Amino acid sequence: MTVRVKICGIRDGAGLDAACAAGADWVGFVFFSRSPRHVTAPQAAPLVRRLPHDGPRAIGLFVRPTDDEIRHVLDTVALDGLQIYDTATRAAAIRVQFGVPVWLAAGIAVRADLPQSCAVDGLVIESRPPAGAQRPGGNARTFDWSLTEGWQAPAPWMLAGGLRPGNVREAVRLSGARAVDVSSGVETAPGVKSPALIHEFVRAAHGL
Ligand SMILES: O=C(O)c1ccccc1NCC(=O)[C@H](O)[C@H](O)COP(=O)(O)O
After folding, report:
1. Distance from Cα 28 to the centre of ligand 1, integer Å
2. Which enzyme type, at the first EC level (predicted)?
């Protein structure tokens, strides 16, 4: 079984090109101004245009977005999907309103946090942010990967939170994830992607 990989928080051509060359399936762009990985629509648009036709799909991350914020980005950036940090109801409404695939990010600390139903295209299962965190994702924080054992996921899902080249295989083994998402674990500093770590992560996720 090939594990699919998303490299999140892309901000420059070097990170983008490394994700493409390594064989990532998705790249993520963070449209959240309080993130060290934040990109504006004019910054993201040329990066997305640079993606090869058969390369990774482009996902835009939004935190409790207004419709206007989403519209502004979609008018400029050719995104293939949205990753939404908000309620399940709001994420489902965004999916209907904008007609694009939507993944809902769900913060997990205990088994009861795992969604049992949803009206979105996919779920990003990541660690619940610590109290007082500046942002709801991208915190380099793991959770107990065995919590997903026996979970009847209501949609395709990917595992995120604190993954790095050195722990991704174990995370896949324990969680049963078929897709993984990484940001901090392929950086040399917050917001600075390392092409070498991106290659290392994708190889490790693929079991190579
Ligand atoms: O990366 C951010 O700064 C960020 C800000 C606001 C919402 C989400 C954000 N990132 C999400 C991700 O990069 C991933 O989906 C995931 O949380 C993995 O992050 P990491 O633990 O850093 O690998």
Report:
1. 9
2. isomerase
Ligand 1 centroid to 154 CA: how many Å? Answer: 22
Q: At what angle do helices 195-205 and 13-22 cross, to 10 degrees?
A: 30
| CATH label of the domain that carries residue 106 | 3.20.20.70
Give the structural domain span for 66. 4-205
Q: pLDDT band for position 208 (50/70/90)? A: confident
> Of ligand 1's atoms, which has the minimum distance to the CA of residue 140?
21
Q: Which of 4, 37, 143, 186 to mutate to test the pocket of ligand 1 (most atoms within 8 A of CB)?
A: 37
Substitution candidate for ligand 1 out of 62, 183, 184 with most atoms within 8 A of CB: 183
Number of domains in the chain: 1
Cα 49 to middle of ligand 1, angstroms: 22
Q: Which atom of ligand 1 is nearest to the CA of 161?
A: 21
Q: Check pLDDT > 80 for residue 1.
A: no
